Amino acid sequence: MKGKDVNTEKGKDATAKERIAMDYFTKHTKLGAIETPKERIAAVDGFLVNAERRIVGIYEVKARGVSLKEFKNFGSWLVSYDKIRIACMLSKALQVSFVAIVLTSDYKLMVFKITDEDGNIILPCRIEKTKTQETCNGGEANRVNMFFSIDDCKVFEKPKDDLK
């Protein structure tokens, strides 16, 4: 999300849902998360830390208005090639893995471990130039995207202590 996009109503909603996603993720994994500034354009959305406060990963988090079932029907999740390329370099430089965390509209969490600690992409994917929505506020972008199979993600349910 572009820095100024977080200040719109859609941007604020996306940010709130991304924080819900990270809350779910940290409850399921027992890892901590430190986010990069939302009002700035950062290479990744944040760092994952263990109980000893050591960085063990970097992450990208997204909230999508699509259910897990719809994602399964699509068969894949897409992310920009440039985002992955930069995350691979950072993963290698820090010697930690890169994960993508996606909150679905039905509040399921899809977690894709994209790289190993050496920055190598470990999931099969396809690369294709496509037309997509530019930001959460709309617009259109023609860019190279990477498609990762839904079969290659781990799915987390809403944490039990959050069930109403």
What are the salient characteristics of this protein?
about 160 residues, alpha+beta, Trna Endonuclease, Chain: A, domain 1, six-stranded mixed sheet, 3 helices, about 35% strand
Structure in a nutshell:
The chain is α+β, with helices and mostly antiparallel strands. The protein has three helices and nine strands; from the N terminus they run αβββαβαβββββ.
| Poorly predicted runs of 5 or more residues | none
Q: Which fold name fills CATH's third level, the topology? A: Trna Endonuclease, Chain: A, domain 1
Q: In total, how many domains does the architecture comprise?
A: 1
Gap between N and C termini: 31 Å
The CATH class is: Alpha Beta
Can you describe this structure?
With 164 residues, this protein is α+β, with helices and mostly antiparallel strands. 26% of the residues lie in helices and 37% in strands. It has one domain (3-162): 3-Layer(aba) Sandwich (Trna Endonuclease, Chain: A, domain 1). It has helices at residues 9-29, 68-74, 81-94; strands at residues 32-35, 46-49, 55-63, 76-80, 97-103, 109-113, 125-135, 138-149, 154-156. A six-stranded mixed sheet has the order 1-2-3-5-6-9. It has a three-stranded antiparallel sheet with strand order 4-8-7. Strand 7 (125-135) and strand 8 form a beta hairpin. The protein starts with 8 loop residues before the first helix and ends in an 8-residue tail after the last strand.
